[in-house]
Design brief:
- The structure holds 2 protein chains of 2 kinds.
- Chain A is α/β, with parallel strands linked by helices.
- Chain A has 8 helices and 7 strands; from the N terminus they run αββαβααβαβαβαβα.
- Chain B has 11 helices and no strands.
- Chain B is 76% helix and 0% strand.
- Chain B is mostly helical.
- Classes of the chains: A alpha/beta, B mainly alpha.
- The interface between A and B is medium-sized, with 16 and 19 residues.
């Protein structure tokens, strides 16, 4: 049942929103993974980010694709938790430790170990619309454990205008999606984060986007 | 309900089919015969023409309501592309939402054959509503730019293009069988061929730049050759698809030829101002929707009001 709902949600509803209501201009689509394990790392401005990224991959990969999302936000009530876990298929993580020795990334590592394609937003939250904030360190700690897993950076523009944080009305805009070359962990967390950030800035520079004020 | 398609419309669609087959053969032949040159974009362009002609033919020939729905969606795509291209203010998100909402309402007047409201809904009612909604939000920084660009977009992408849809619902004329579908086919076909012909004449004989600051590739030779070819085609096609007499057909040919050119360079001016080459990437080989409907934003209302004044 939940499987069918998930298929309808991403196969029909999400694709209708992403391709008809919004409209995607995807550059370098061929750099997207054709299987797992893989980490899709994207900038985060809107709830539509996940939906858009999910529609970039073919439906046959859907059972393998899971967004990593904050447990405190998406599991805050039972209805939302059911929707987030069963339909969206999130891998929930806590943003703050309840015990000093808790490994916050444990569920993510387990999922990657199974060969999943995970969607990861290293900014941690949606932040101000169409602005890239500082990357958090989680993504580096994750690939440190899985150095063979390719990290594909994806830069998106337009979704923060269509549905920014705190707004309920969706306003259609065409969305630019720029996919970067896969990146691997080189042995140092700080270097990796810097490199990832540089790749993301280079992708953003492929378009010329005016700041949205 | 699908009405029977008139033979004149079918003949014209058959002619388009032949033209597309010829274009496909030529582009494929060029690609094989001259592998040293890159004809990839030409092949892509012709390929996209098949899609556009196919969708347009199905929408316009089958049923009036499907056609109105098609033009509603076309206006939506054009306005969305325009609003994604221009700088908009964060404060105006809700105003933009109203503008999108105005599209189906506007095309409802077409469906309802309510001409009086069709001609004032955007230039009067939306004109006032957009300003009012913006003032209520209260952000005065760049107010004039925001309200001006939004009104221009609504008039061009929704109001001007929608004249194609209203051609479909003009009252039937006694003794004339082709009706609205024939008129839409006539103006769209001539406008698109005019674009192609101005390009071809310009490539072959172009010497004198006509709009050096806006669109430097446009030449006087291209414009004149295109307008004359379009006028000749208008005279040939008018008896098949329209009630136009021969002198009116000449006038309409000139109007479509010159109007199409002006619509084209108007969107070029917009793109140059925004510093983009193509308005989007929706149509492979062509660019965006605006790159394809640019000429129609002028020819559709011009042709419509010519017909309305003299014939309906």
């Amino acid at each position: 049942m939940a499987k069918l709902l998930r298929w309808i949600f991403f196969g029909v509803i999400a694709r209708f929103v992403a391709l008809i209501v919004l409209g995607l201009n995807v550059r370098h689509r061929e750099r997207l993974p054709s299987g797992g394990p893989c980490l899709l790392v994207a900038n985060h401005n809107s709830h539509l980010d996940t939906i858009t990224l999910m529609t970039l991959l073919p439906l046959k990969l859907l059972p393998r694709v899971h967004p990593v999302a904050a447990a405190d936000y998406f599991l805050r009530n039972r209805v939302l938790a059911w929707f987030a876990l069963k339909v969206i298929g999130i891998v929930p993580i806590n943003r703050a430790r309840s015990r000093p020795d808790e490994d916050l990334l444990a569920p993510v590592k387990e999922s990657l170990g199974r060969g999943d394609i995970l969607i990861f937003f290293p900014e941690g939250s949606r932040g101000a619309p169409e602005a890239l904030s500082e990357f958090k360190g989680g993504v580096a700690r994750l690939v440190e454990r899985f150095p063979d897993v390719p990290v594909v950076p994806v830069f998106m523009h337009g979704l923060g205008k269509a549905l920014p944080k705190g707004e309920a009305i969706l306003v259609p805009f065409f969305v630019d999606v720029f996919v970067g070359e896969p990146l691997h962990y080189g042995g140092d967390r700080d270097d990796f984060l810097r490199e990832l950030r540089q790749r993301m800035d280079a992708l953003a520079a492929e378009g010329s986007f005016a700041p949205w004020v | 309900m699908i009405r029977s398609i008139q033979p004149q419309v079918l003949w014209t669609l058959g002619g388009i089919l032949v033209a597309l087959i010829v274009a496909t053969i030529i582009s494929q032949w060029l690609k094989r015969a001259r592998p040293d040159k890159d004809y990839g974009e030409l092949v892509q362009r012709v390929n996209s023409w098949w899609w556009m002609a196919g969708i347009f033919a199905v929408a316009v020939a089958l049923n009036v309501n499907i056609a109105i729905g098609f033009f509603t969606f076309l206006s939506f795509l054009a306005l969305k592309e325009y609003l994604s291209l221009i700088p908009t203010r964060r404060a105006d998100r809700r105003v933009l939402f109203w503008c999108y909402l105005a599209i189906p309402i506007h095309y409802y007047w077409v469906y309802d054959r309510w001409y009086e409201l069709f001609v004032i809904w955007i230039p009067v009612w939306m004109f006032l509503l957009v300003s009012a909604r913006m003032v209520v939000i209260g952000d005065t920084k760049d107010f004039l730019r925001a309200v001006g660009t939004l009104q221009w977009g609504m008039l061009t992408m929704v109001f001007a293009l929608s004249h194609l849809a209203y051609l479909l619902v003009l009252p039937e004329r006694i003794g004339q069988t082709v009706g609205g579908a024939g008129l839409v086919l006539f103006v769209v076909l001539l406008t698109q061929l005019n674009d192609v012909m101005q390009y071809v004449w310009g490539k072959l004989f172009g010497r004198h730049k006509i709009t050096p600051t806006v669109s430097p590739k446009k030449t006087a030779e291209g414009l004149v050759g295109g307008v004359l070819t379009t006028t000749a085609l208008a005279v040939a096609l008018a008896p098949v698809l329209t009630p136009l007499n021969i002198w009116h057909a000449v006038a309409v040919g000139l109007i479509i030829g010159i109007g199409g050119f002006l619509g084209d360079v108007t969107i070029s001016a917009l793109k140059r101002d925004l510093n983009v080459k193509d308005s989007g990437s929706l149509i492979p080989g062509h660019g965006g929707i605006l790159d394809r409907v640019d000429s129609l934003t002028f020819t559709a209302p011009l042709f419509f009001h010519f017909m309305k004044y003299f014939y309906y």
